[in-house]
Amino acid sequence: MKTFRTSALCAVAAAAMATPAAVPQIPAFWQDMTTEIDSDGLWIESGFLTIRGRASAGAQVAAFEALEGGTPTDGSDSDFSLRLTAEYEAANGLLWGFRTELDTGNVEIADFERDEFYVYLASEWGRIELGENDGPADSLFFHAPTTGLGQIRGDFARYTGSVALLSPYDSRDSLKITYLSAPIRNFRFGVSYSPEWESNGSDPDPRNQTRQNDVVEIGVQFVQPLGEWIWGVSAAAVKSDADPITQREDIDSWGVGTQLRRGDWTFGSAFVQRGQSNRRFGSDNEYEWNAGVYWRGDDWRVAGSYALTRDGSTDEHRFGVGGSYEITENVYFRMDGVVTMDEREGRADRDGWAVISEIGFRF
After folding, report:
1. How far apart, in whole angstroms, are the C-alpha atoms of residue 352 and residue 348?
2. What is the C-alpha to C-alpha distance for residues 172 and 88, in angstroms, rounded to an integer?
3. How far is CA 60 from CA 28, 30, 74, in A?
4. Cα torsion for 171, 172, 174, 175, to the nearest 10°?
5. What residues contact residue 139 under an 8 Å CB cut-off, 6+ apart?
6. Pairing relation of β-strands 347-362 and 49-65?
7. First vs last C-alpha separation in the chain
8. 3 state SS of 7
9. Of all helices (H) and strands (E), which one includes residue 139?
10. For residue 199, what are the β-bridge partners?
11. CA–CA distance, 138 with 242 (Å, rounded to integer)
12. What CA–CA distance (Å, rounded) separates 8 from 176?
């Protein structure tokens, strides 16, 4: 860790430049500024203002067999992400802030949207967020834990198959306003409203687009210590109206999930009912069971997860294992292995797999 006390440097420079007539004035913001660069990125603090930043880039290579069958081949990809958070704590206890996140990864996978920009206000009564970010149906929902490259809801879908739901079908990172309550006797809840969620808007065929209006998300969470364990349960629901031009169904999705934590271990599972949310008219209902386990050490993160998604008479099984290792505070290695299989009455099973590794640098 490197710590720079810029106030001392500024004081020396001011003394050297001083004359009997005038002494340069140092702006108040810089007088007691502290800067740190460590494994968590850049951290700057000056008075009541805190700024945090992190950038990372990774190169990825994969061996895989597509779901339709065939000879395993090699693939490659790359990711870049940038996160910046600034917070100001006012004298009355209110915390003002903004967060932005740019992520080039997974934009082509099942409507993943990981580019965020929002402002927030937090106090003892809760937190209000306004901007492009995830709603409470995602942030408060317990499900199979993942790490590394995401296992069953991760990068493997670049090469074969499709990702698991894990949580209710929601509005991703659409523009929304969100309220998240403070914990009340181990209970939290949240609600968000998005006037419109659009995806794949450049496609000339409106049937391939997503246009959902008046998206409402509700999430609740309860956490309770049980001896050396911490047990949590959650529920969430999402509703919206589809634009008729897309010939897709309204969003009407819900789910329940649970989690157990003890020390470095976390176990989680969920049931998710997607129904026909944002699917073509006449599509079958879809639901999913998922479960997984996660372990966190000093430098290692390891997880295994499984999901069974039923779509009409088709069962899709996904099983994934993987994790990450911190080589140094700025260099990391991540690896996933995922197997997926489709079973449908009257048709031969289809299976595929992917093994992905990534080396990355963060600062």
Report:
1. 13
2. 27
3. 45, 41, 11
4. 90
5. 180, 190, 219
6. antiparallel
7. 12
8. helix
9. helix 136-139
10. 210
11. 20
12. 44
- Residue 29, judged by CB atoms within 10 A of its CB (0-12, 13-18, 19+), counts as exposed
Kindly give the confidence (pLDDT) of every residue in the chain, 363 residues in length, as a single tens digit, with 9 standing for 90 and above: 333 333 333 433 343 334 444 545 545 555 577 888 766 778 888 878 899 898 999 999 999 998 877 777 778 888 888 999 999 999 888 999 999 988 876 545 655 556 789 999 999 999 999 999 999 999 999 999 999 899 999 999 888 889 999 999 999 999 999 999 999 999 999 999 999 999 888 889 999 999 999 999 999 999 999 999 999 999 999 999 999 999 999 999 999 999 999 999 999 999 999 999 999 999 999 999 999 999 999 999 999 999 999 998 899 999 999 999 999 988 999 999 999 999 988 788 889 999 999 999 988
Q: In the structure encoding, which two tokens stand for residue 113, read together?
A: 């949207």
Give the CA diameter of the chain: 94
* Architecture category of domain 33-362 in CATH: Beta Barrel (2.40)
User: Which amino acid is located at 39 in the chain?
Assistant: S
- Distance between CA atoms of 131 and 119, rounded to whole angstroms? 6
Residue 298 CA to residue 69 CA, distance in Å, equals: 39
| Alpha carbon distance 363, 55 (integer Å) | 6
CA angle in degrees (0–180, nearest 5) for 218-223-227? 165
- Structure token pair of residue 240: 């919206």
d(CA 170, CA 182): 22
Strand segments, DSSP code E, in 47-133 are: 49-65, 73-89, 95-103, 116-123, 126-132
Cβ-based neighbours of 109, under 8 Å, separated by 6 or more: 155, 157, 158, 163
Residue 46, amino acid: S
